[in-house]
From TrEMBL:
Protein name: F-BAR domain-containing protein
InterPro entries: AH/BAR_dom_sf (IPR027267), F_BAR_dom (IPR031160), FCH_dom (IPR001060)
Native organism taxonomy: Eukaryota, Metazoa, Chordata, Craniata, Vertebrata
Keyword Oxidoreductase: no
Residue intervals of the F-BAR domain: 10-153
SUPFAM superfamilies tied to this protein: BAR/IMD domain-like
SMART domains reported for this sequence: FCH
CC terms in the record's Gene Ontology section: clathrin-coated pit; clathrin-coated vesicle; plasma membrane
Single biological process term from Gene Ontology: clathrin-dependent endocytosis
Key words of the record: Coiled coil, Phosphoprotein
Amino acid sequence: MPEQQLLKPTEWSYCDYFWADKKNPQGNGMVAGFELLLQKQLKGKQMQKEMSEFFRERIKIEEEYAKNLAKLSQNSLAAQEEGSLGEAWAQVKKSLADEAEVHLKFSAKLHSEVEKPLMNFHENFKKDMKKCDHHIADLSKQLSSHYALVETA
């Protein structure tokens, strides 16, 4: 059977490696379609981990910033000032407290609407992958043995 022409010869492409093992583009060995899918899933898993770490760090930064703004807004500097400067200073402190609250709410939203769903997805994905992993490997072996039988027939 002649070797199939690769559609994307310089890449590890699903469309080129799905049905059967092929020589890899670098010429050192064979690559199975199943292995290619597994590699893509592992890259996706790594990306998800990096995204989780990114958002966790962002949440931590927002919380720390909110805490520091709130602390700054409690500063007693010019507390005894009267007149228009006193009013302006009170407004500055109030706006700092309001901004601190906004950042704290934002960090809570990031946690509940981004980080938590991302972690739930990760846990569910892990469970699903464990269920499917052995089944797909068995099917891949069956497919290879069927190809071998067809070749010998």
